[in-house]
Amino acid sequence: AITAGDVDLTHKSRATIMGETLLGLVGNGWAMVAADASAAFSVIKLKDTEDKIFELDSHRVMAAAGEPGDRAQFCEYVRKNLALYAYQNQGLRLSTHGCAHYIRGQLAEAIRKDPQQVNLLLVGYDAPSEVLTAAEQPDEESGPSLYFMDYLGNVAPYAVHGAGLRLLLHPLHHGPLVREEHGSRSGQADHAAVHQGSAIEAGVEQHQLLCQDCDCR
Amino acid sequence: NWLTTNMSRYDRALTVFSPDGHLFQAEYASEAVRKGSTAVGVRGTDVVVLAVERKSTAKLQESRTVRKICVLDEHVAIAFAGLNADARVLTNKARVECQSFRLTFEDAVSVDYITRHIAKVQQRYTQSGGVRSFGVSNLVAGFDSDGTPRLYTTEPSGAFSAWKANAIGRGEKTCREFLEKHYTEPPSGDDAVMLSIRTLLEVVESGSKNVEVAVMYPNAPIRYLT
Fold it and tell me: Interface pTM (ipTM) of the complex?
């Protein structure tokens, strides 16, 4: 695995790369999101232990980047509204697809009234329905999934936000596709290493990983 | 004939007092509550129990969709007596308030707070024009963040208070008398469950399909007994 000590251009790239990095991956039965941990104001680094990953509920995790106040407020707002939905509907939780579109709707309304400067990556795992057969199962509502949302209310199947976007020109760039050979847990470790590598290239020192799979870990 | 007394001139509008100081609409709302199925609440040393009378449903009706004990948040539940639809509206307002409180204060509501909120809503509807009061009494049961069990009752008038054990609805008088006789000291665990079921059985035919019981312990999800 690549460690921070191997790379010596970090201090230079930190100064030039503004903004934050979020990465998301979907694998065979799991989905992962990583976020850098720095809170910076242009060249001044305020903090490198910032937690930008929010658990929305037991099966959904969101990584957020952008204006710190908006990021925290918006994510908390989404989390509480999803909790309310569960209480109002006897514990039924929205699918990841439903969550993504609810969030997208909130962002789209906000852009013309009360713009929130947050870019998001949402990952989640939906247990397949017990009633429908495998053929009837809607693709977007079973298994792991990843959604990219930006402050304008766009939703897309990309996997990367911010500075990382420019630098990820290596095998990961074909996006949130299943990598059959990396379906196992050891595959996750490989991906973690790749994450670390690309994160180091993006000039961040520390980051967090949160994996979502059927065990909702 | 009571209809020809002063009552009839002062009971139309909610916002009008009668000469002898009654708000008749609010009192009539309590009458609606007394027609509803019974609910009993018992607060123990480390547990709160809600037991409700399950009205018989029509043959084709899905009885499990008729919920009389509703969860407001992970540590508070509510049982009601009276008009189902009014209760649904109140419960939803309370649920929204629970999450709104969490968003603002990053903390869970105390049972007192949420009861006060529900009671405030009920009172507001007794003092506005063009609305009628909620024909619902509530038993709000749960735990504060320090683990203390709490039980509160609200009424259509908007009055509320804390109770060690209480009953609302059709059999409230009988059940309350039974509780006053048998609740000597705060029961614990299973004793509280037994007490609430025995109380309810004073007014309900015995049989598992006539009674629904929910048990709450601190830091644990609510458990429905079948």
Answer: 0.83
